[in-house]
Amino acid sequence: MTETTGTNPGILLVLDGWGHAEPGAGNALAVAETPVLDGIRTKYPATLVEASGEHVGLLPGTVGNSEIGHMVIGAGRPLDYDSVLVQRQIDTGGLRDNPRLTEALDALAAGGGALHLIGLVSDGQIHAHVDHLHELLSIAAARGVERVWVHAVTDGRDVADRTAGHYLGRVEEFFATTGVGRLATVSGRGYALDKSGDLELTAKVTQAVADGDGALARDYVQVLAGAGDGDVWVTPTVLTDAAGEPLATVRDGDAILFANFRSDRIQQLADDLVKHLAESDVRILSLTQYATTADIPALVGRADASGGLADQLEAHGLRSVRVAEQEKFEHVTYYLNGRDERRREVEEHVRITSDEAPGYTARPEMNLDRVADAVIEAAGRSDVALVAANLANIDVVGHTGDHDATVKAAEYTDGQVDRILTAAAATGRWVVLVGDHGNAERMSKPGPDGTPLPYGGHTTNPVPAVVVPAPGQVLPDALRDGGSLADIAPTVLALLGRPNGPAMTGRSLL
Ligand SMILES: O=C(O)[C@H](O)COP(=O)(O)O
Ligand SMILES: [Mn+2]
Ligand SMILES: [Mn+2]
């Protein structure tokens, strides 16, 4: 029997993509009819907290993302995110001297093997930064590697759609400035970065990269000319020579380096390529540590994110139930726990799945009703101290760039939050609501040439944080201003009547 707490048990709701901006063009949250979410922000203690840039361990001015957002919410302190660690290695010259990289490159130079760089080419800084390719090309050139093939993944989700040509043009400039490199394949992230387990999508990229099998084109302009569905769904295409032969395939003695600094999407492709090349003599590396099944050596290690909320709940014997749809399940488990695969005895995980093919603009409600059902069920249990859930719609639908669908997603979320708040009051629970980064409050952005384009990416805006008290619970009139996501775990622990974890530097907002 897990002790609940001397104080009230509670519910933590992370509303993914729930950012704050003044009403204005592109602010779908300001347009949406959300009387419950609007009401709690004035009726109960509420504030705005920072969820981007250096406040959460990203480079200054960098938009927030779900990984670091949930990691910092869980850790109770800012964490150096992988993108910062990679940039620091680049800035200090550490990457240039990285022994795993130099050993691989020297072996290629000595053996005449080719280096294959695979990564998302945009400056969205959620999964990758295209400028990291420039550094890797420059290091390969300096180490005498003569053939470097870039297998480009086009974005259109973390940056405005139909900007792939702009970024691929930058990659071509890198080839000229570093004196090495050539595009070998171009694939949309819908194929290359699928994380739903749809291996048919992944296989198209694996076959293009490894075997030169797939649609053919002479150059990326021709590839994009045929990309009717935008950058996300560019058909995995193999670039060919004048005779129509693939420019590159992966051969024995080659090396592959995955250049995304975020694992959760590219890991499916990495595992598939490792399997596809199991009988080949190909060295496979990744820029950062991936949560792959295969053991892929990484160039840059991770920051320690232990000692967070999960460890504190375990230390105090407090049972938590984690709930999310499949799109955000890892966020309320693995990431909230500091990228720790271990499910503690006091943890229960509820992953809401659906057989229905996701059509976010057609079904902005997704399966949020079933997420709310699971939250309400767990809230009814006296042995559960904390229910922690991610409500994905505002972000997942926001990523479509479809303003009106995102308005509907926010309005549906409002109704489901109402159900949860009613259940919380009935079960004597407080509720903390917080965004993990902004998204839907900015649904349009000037493209590279300045014209406003639909924008489904994240923002650097602060996010709302609200504490709805349990019935009869006395709370301060307002939350402390000037906080960040690092202050959420300390706030939850304070509400549970428990101290900060020793590694936490965040402070309760109460
Ligand atoms: O992977 C995605 O869906 C987006 O690029 C990032 O979204 P997330 O950081 O909210 O998961
Ligand atoms: Mn998110
Ligand atoms: Mn997102």
Automatic annotation (TrEMBL):
Pfam families, per the entry: iPGM_N, Metalloenzyme
Signal peptide: none
Identification of the protein by name: 2,3-bisphosphoglycerate-independent phosphoglycerate mutase
Gene this chain is encoded by: gpmI
Keyword Transport belongs to the record: no
Lineage: Bacteria, Bacillati, Actinomycetota, Actinomycetes, Kitasatosporales
UniProt-listed InterPro entries: Alkaline_phosphatase_core_sf (IPR017850), BPG-indep_PGM_N (IPR011258), Metalloenzyme (IPR006124), PGAM_B_sf (IPR036646), Pgm_bpd_ind (IPR005995)
UniProt enzyme class: isomerase
Record-annotated BPG-independent PGAM N-terminal domain positions: 86-291
Entry's EC annotation: 5.4.2.12
Annotated GO MF terms: phosphoglycerate mutase activity
NCBIfam families to which the protein is assigned, alphabetical: pgm_bpd_ind (TIGR01307)
Keywords: Glycolysis, Isomerase, Manganese, Metal-binding
UniProt keyword annotation of Manganese present: yes
Organism: Streptomyces roseicoloratus
Requisite cofactors: Mn(2+)
Pathway terms, separated by semicolons: Carbohydrate degradation; glycolysis; pyruvate from D-glyceraldehyde 3-phosphate: step 3/5
Family (UniProt): Belongs to the BPG-independent phosphoglycerate mutase family.
Domain Metalloenzyme residue range list: 9-497
Catalysed reactions, semicolon-separated: (2R)-2-phosphoglycerate = (2R)-3-phosphoglycerate
Gene3D superfamilies assigned: Alkaline Phosphatase, subunit A, BPG-independent phosphoglycerate mutase, domain B
Source taxon at top rank: Bacteria
